[in-house]
Write a structure and sequence with these properties.
Blueprint (H helix, E strand, L loop, with lengths): L10 H4 L2 E2 L3 H11 L8 E2 L2 H10 L15 E3 H4 L11 E5 L5 E14 L2 E10 L15 H7 L5 E5 L6 H14 L2 E7 L10 H9 L8 E6 L7 H14 L4 E3 L11 E3 L4 E4 L4 E4 L8 E2 L4 H10 L10 H10 L8 E6 L6 H15 L4 E5 H6 L9 H20 L3 E5 L5 H13 L3 E7 L3 H7 L4 H6 L21 E3 L6 H14 L9
Parallel strand pairs: 1-4, 7-8, 7-10, 8-9, 10-11, 15-17, 15-18, 16-17, 18-19
Antiparallel strand pairs: 2-6, 3-6, 4-5, 5-6, 12-13, 12-14
Helix pairs in contact: 7-10, 11-17, 13-14
């Protein structure tokens, strides 16, 4: 879609570029594929105010939710909305590749350092790559594939087990319509599965469904359940859905007719899933909870066939292997001299001796000589250093390894980012707070840093003139005061063994 917008050569090359947040990238894709029609770009301030007050754009068009873009103000300073050649903003994907350009027609301050942007968007570059790209269809393409008449829409953000498949089959029979399954793929789902793993799990159940058309859709939660439900209903309607099978907040119809699923149970007499109240209690098995499913997968136990089709169970086991084979990031944080590096090295040595896991040690000092060479000790540089460590550790975890990280990591926001990197890579994350008090760390002062900081010879020393934010979400807390290193190492190994990441007999 180009909206008749033509630019001279060189304008895009010289335009400022920015990578939006995940939900903004998802909105961008929905704009470019005309799922958000009649919208052609990000909304103006006037439209945003009107949508909030009336659920309509300024021109009276019904529209349920804001579609916004925020950009750092230093980039906005390079944009002149009065000049068509100097109001272009290039938007890139998470890898830095240009995907779209915005013809910026309005900017306004939104929060510290950020400003809102309104304007028409158009696609640039080649966006035909990516897993399951063939399923990312436009509404026009889907309408050509789907038979006319009633269309049952189901938004599937979790793997489909037999109770959900039975609900879908019953709804499709009741409606006597075609089934359209929409799979959100812009971010890990509620079960923590990567988007491509979720798609594999859903496709593995296709032989258990009535005639179906699959579509992958870039939907990302915005943090507001009502807004997300309205948005999902709008997207479903754009693809021709007439009836929506309710799942959680999708009972907010957004104008669609909603089918409320029955509460089903497994009938042990004949192996069928029926309405719960139609089965005598002694012959009734309830569906497994998410916690029960996760526990089975964590232990490497098979999901029962009465509950999960074997093909789906196989894909789930591939996507979420047992903890003994799943990637793991163990992230040690604490003051300089707390003992975190020594403990991490001890844990690494112990795991290497057993040979059951591959181990990568990312020590703070070593990382600064290589991965983060050139960074200083300002708050921004420290944040960057920890994020780099977290990203590399997540990649180790993505491929089933164990990464042991031991930077100071004084800021909660950086540690949160490291946890998110690991989770998005499908790895587990264990935060170990080596909570040795400042007084004990100063007493040790192996590098002489505290003495220099007290003497004013250096600045930015964590615990002296730069803050350390103690974690409130640590999985394990160790104070090494009066504790031998061997015992501290054993505490970590016991924790890993007790939770299934290593053989507990090795702890």
């Amino acid at each position: 879609m180009n909206n008749g917008w033509v630019l001279p050569d060189g304008v895009l090359r010289d335009a400022p570029a920015y990578t939006p947040r995940m939900h903004e990238l998802a909105d961008l894709e929905l704009l470019l594929t005309e799922v958000y029609a009649p919208l052609t770009g990000f909304l103006s301030r006037a439209d945003l105010i009107s949508v909030a007050r009336t659920g309509r754009l300024v021109d009276g068009t019904a529209w349920p939710v804001p579609v916004t873009l925020e950009v750092p103000t230093d980039l906005l300073s390079r944009i002149d909305v009065a000049n068509p050649l100097e109001r272009v903003l290039v938007l890139t994907d998470t890898e830095g590749a240009p995907v779209a350009a915005v013809d910026v027609t309005e900017v306004w301050p939104t929060r510290d350092g950020m400003g809102g942007v309104a304007g028409v968007v158009r696609r640039i570059g080649d966006t035909g790559q990516g897993p399951f790209r063939r399923l990312r269809r436009t509404p026009a393409e889907v309408r050509e594939l789907v038979p006319s008449g009633r269309v049952l829409g189901v938004i599937v953000d979790r793997p489909l087990h037999r109770p959900q498949l039975a609900q879908i089959a019953h709804a499709a029979r009741t409606l006597a319509g075609h089934l359209l399954v929409l799979i959100p793929v812009a971010a890990p789902g509620p079960d923590g599965l990567a988007p491509e793993a979720l798609v594999r799990c859903v496709l593995a159940a296709r032989d258990r469904m009535p005639p179906v058309t699959f579509v992958t859709v870039p939907l990302v939660p915005h943090g507001d359940e009502v807004r997300d439900a309205l948005l999902r209903a709008r997207v479903a309607a754009a693809y021709g859905v007439t009836h929506l099978l309710a799942t959680g907040t999708s009972m907010i119809s957004g104008g669609l007719r909603v089918l409320v699923p029955r509460e089903l149970a497994y009938d042990t007499r004949d192996g069928q899933w029926r309405t719960r109240d139609d089965i005598p209690p002694r012959h009734r098995r309830l569906a497994l909870t998410k916690t029960e499913i996760d526990d089975l997968l964590d232990r490497g136990a098979a999901l029962p066939e009465w509950h999960t089709p074997p093909a789906v169970a196989k894909e789930l086991a591939r996507a979420r292997p047992s903890r003994r084979h799943r990637g793991l990031v163990v992230f040690f944080t604490g003051l300089s001299g707390s003992g975190k590096s020594t403990i991490a090295r001890g844990v690494a040595d112990a795991l290497k001796e057993t040979g059951e896991r591959t181990v990568t040690l990312l020590d703070g000092d070593v990382v600064r000589r290589h991965l983060s060479k050139g960074l200083g000790f300002s708050a921004a540089d420290r944040d960057t250093n920890v994020r780099r460590i977290g990203w590399v550790a997540a990649e180790v975890g993505r491929h089933g390894g164990v990464a042991l990280c031991c930077p100071i990591a004084p800021y909660a926001v950086s540690r949160t980012a490291a946890r998110r990197f690991a989770t998005e890579a499908g790895a587990d994350f264990v935060l170990v707070h080596v909570a040795t008090p400042l007084e004990e760390c100063e007493r040790r002062d192996r590098k002489g840093l505290y003495a220099k900081a007290r003497a004013g010879e250096i600045t930015g020393m964590t615990g002296i003139d730069d803050p350390y934010e103690p974690p409130t979400d640590a999985d394990l807390v160790i104070d090494t005061t009066g504790v031998k290193i061997g015992e501290a190492v054993a505490m970590v190994l016991r924790h890993l063994g007790a939770h299934g990441w290593i053989d507990p007999r090795l702890a």
